[in-house]
Amino acid sequence: MAKIDYEDPHYYTNRELSWLNFNDRVLEESRDKSNPLLERVKFLGITQSNMDEFVMVRVASLAKLTEVKWDGRDASGLSAAQQLKAVNDKSHEQLVKQYTTLNRIILPAIRQVGIRLLKVTDLSEEQYQFIKSYFHDELYPVLTPMADDSSRPFPFISNDTLNLSLRLNKKGDDKSLYATLQVPSIFPRVVKLPGAENDFILLEEIVKQFVDQLFVNYDIQEVSTFRVIRDMDLDVAEEDTSDLLKKVQQQLKLREHGKVIRLEVDSDISKKLRKRLVRELETDEDSVYEVNGPIDLTFLGKLASAVTGHDDLKYPPFKPYQPEALNSDHNIFEAIQKHDWLMQHPYDKFDSVVEFIRQASIDKEVLAIKMTLYRVSGNSPIIKYLGRAAQNGKQVTVLVEVKARFDEENNVHWARQLERMGCHVIYGLVGLKTHSKLSLVVRREESGIRRYVHLGTGNYNDVTAHFYTDIGLLTANNDIGIDVTNIFNMLSGYSRPPYFHKLHISPKGIREFITDRLDQAIEYAKAGRPVRVQMKMNSLSDKDMIAKMYEASHAGVEINLIVRGICCLKTGIKGISDTIQVHSIVGRFLEHSRIYIFDFDGEKQVYLSSADLMTRNLNRRVEQLFPVEQPDLTQRVLDIYRAMWDDNVKTRVLDADGTYKRVDRRGRAPLNSQEFFADQATKLAKKQQSESHKQNPNQFQPMMSPENQPDPLSDEDQDGGNEA
After folding, report:
1. Cβ(353)–Cβ(460) under 8 Å?
2. Could you say which of 635, 659, 676 is where a domain stops?
3. Residues annotated in a binding site for Mg(2+)
4. Which residues are part of a known binding site for ATP?
5. What are the distances in angstroms from CA 360 to CA 167, 355, 368, 396, 557?
6. What is the pLDDT of residues 543-567, one digit of tens each?
7. Taking every annotated instance into account, which residue ranges of this chain make up the domain PLD phosphodiesterase (predicted)?
8. Greatest CA span in the chain, whole angstroms?
9. Of 10, 136, 330, 435, which one is the catalytic site residue?
10. Whole-structure pTM value
11. Residues 114 and 167 in one domain
C-alpha cells in the first residue's frame, strides 16, 4: 500500500478563503427569515465589522508578503500573491451579496414595519428644517474642509473614517478643484428624525446636502463618499526592546499610518474622482470596492438599537441562572470547598466569576490574588476589585497582555491603572502572547493554605460574556492549584516546572497532549476497539494537527468537530477523512468555548481549553487545557456537546466540496442548541426564584444534569418557537 502524503496541498483549504466562508454564514443569518428582523439587521452589520478586522490584519499581512515577494506557500499550495488575488475576488463577490441583502431584503422589510432610513428627498418639511438646523447648530462648527492643491497636499485619511471627496470650481472658472471632508465621528451616524417614531437619516446625507455652505463662492460639481481600511497589525520587535509597554505605545501611534489595504467608494463616483483617490491613496486597483449603498454597514447595529417600540423584532429575553451558593449572599469559598462548579456563559451568569474576585478582595483570610487578563471591558468590575484587593493589603499580581489585538490601547490603560492601585503588573512575555484565562486565590484556613482557581475558555470580560458562549470551572483541587501556581511563577519569573499534574500548557504542551491522545485513538482503532474524538473550537488551521486527524481517520477513528470559523480541514476525502464530520454553529451567540473529548471504549476524558487548534495558539501563545473530572460536571459537558452536535437549526455541515450546507430537518423536531440552553437557564432561574425559601442555598444544582433536566433531543421539549 502506498504511503499517504499528508503534505499534499489538495488536502487543505486556504485559511483566508475559509474565513470568508465563515463570514458568508454570518451573512446568511441576515437573510434568514426565521430570525427576528432587527437581529437580521445586526447580523448584516456584523459582517462588515468582521470584514474590517480581517482586512486590517489578514489581508494586510498578505499584502506585505506579496510586496516583499515572499516565496513561501500555505498548506493549500497558494503563494501570498495568489491568496491576495483570491481573497480580493471573493471579497468583491461578498460585497455585492451584502448590498443586495441590504437594498432588496433588509431595507424593504424594515420599511414595511414603519422603520425608515430616509434620503433628503424623502423628508417632510418638518424633517428638512430639522436637518438644516442640525447642520448649522451642531455640524458646521466642527467640520473642516481640506483643500487639495499645489500648496496644500492631499490630507492624511485616517483608518475606518467616513470621508467626502469633492470636485468643485470657483464661480466663473471651469478649472476643477478638489477637496476632502471628514464626516465627524463624534456625532451619531444614525440621526433620529422628528415626525415619526422610527424615521432616520445618515449623518453623511445631512453633510452632503449642505456641504456647499463650507465652500462659499464655489460650485460643487461632485460629492462622493469614501473610506479606507489600513494595515493595522501591530509589529512589535520584542527582542529589540527591554520596555514592552513603551514599544507597544510607540507602535500604536505608527499603526495609524499603515498602508491603505482597501478603498471603498460610492458606486456612482466619476472615473476622474475615482482615479484621483486611487493615485493619492496609493491603492491597488483590486483593492478598490465600489459600494451600492451607504459605505460601512456597521451603522446597522446602531440603527437596530435606535429603533423604539419593536421588541417583537428582537430576540426574546432569557433569564441567566446563578446558583445561590455563588452569589453575594453566600461565602463562595465554602461553596467551592464542597465541590467544583461549572458555568456555561451566557446561560449561567458571569456574575459568579466577578463575585469570586470581589469576595477575594475583601476576605480577611485571602493572602494573594493572581490573574491573567487578555481582554476586559471598558469599565471592568474585575479591575476595580483587583485594585481594592491591593489596597486591602493583599498580594495582587496581574498579567495584562498588552499585545491583545485591537485591545492594546485599552489594556495599556488598565495596566497603568492597576499599577496605580498597588497591583504588581506583568506586561506579557517576550515572543509570546498570554491567552490563557486563569485566576488564583490563595487563602489561609484552619487546615492550612488552600488555593482556589477559576479556569475558563473565554476572557474576563463582563460585557462579551453576555453574548459569547464560554465555559468556566471553579475548583479547589490541590493539584490544579499547584499547577496554576507554577504557571504564574513561570509567567512572572524564571521558573520552569518539570511537569504539570493536571494542566497542559502551550507552547508545546497542548500540541503534545492532543497528538498523544490521537495516537492512542489510532491504536484503539487498529485494535478494533470503539473510539471517538469530539472537539469544539473557534478555528482549526494548524497543518500538523489536521494531518494527525487525517491519520486517525485513515485508521478508522470517528472524529466529530464543531468549528465555528476557519476550518482548513477537508471532509470526505476517500481514505483520508472519511470518518471526520465538521459542523459550524452560527446563531444568536458567538460560539467561543473550546471542548476536547476523547472516548476510549466508553472511558470518556473531558477537557476544556483557552486554545484553538491554530499554529499561533499551539506555538506562540501561553494557553491552558484542563480536565473536568467531577463526574456530574463531566456529564454536563458531554450533554452540552451532544446538544450542540445535534443542533439542526443553526448548524451548517461542511461538505466534501468545501461548502457548508444546512442540516436536512425533514422528519426531525427542530433543535436550536443556543435556544435550548437559554430556555433551560430561564427555567432554572425561575424555579430558583419561586422556591428559594425552600432550598438549601449550598445545594449543588447543575444546569444540565441528566437526572434533573429533560433530554435535549426529546420531541416534547422542542417547541419550534423562535429559531434564532
Report:
1. yes
2. 676
3. 375, 405
4. 50, 468, 564, 592
5. 63, 8, 8, 11, 45
6. 999 999 999 999 999 999 999 999 9
7. 587-617
8. 93
9. 435
10. 0.90
11. yes
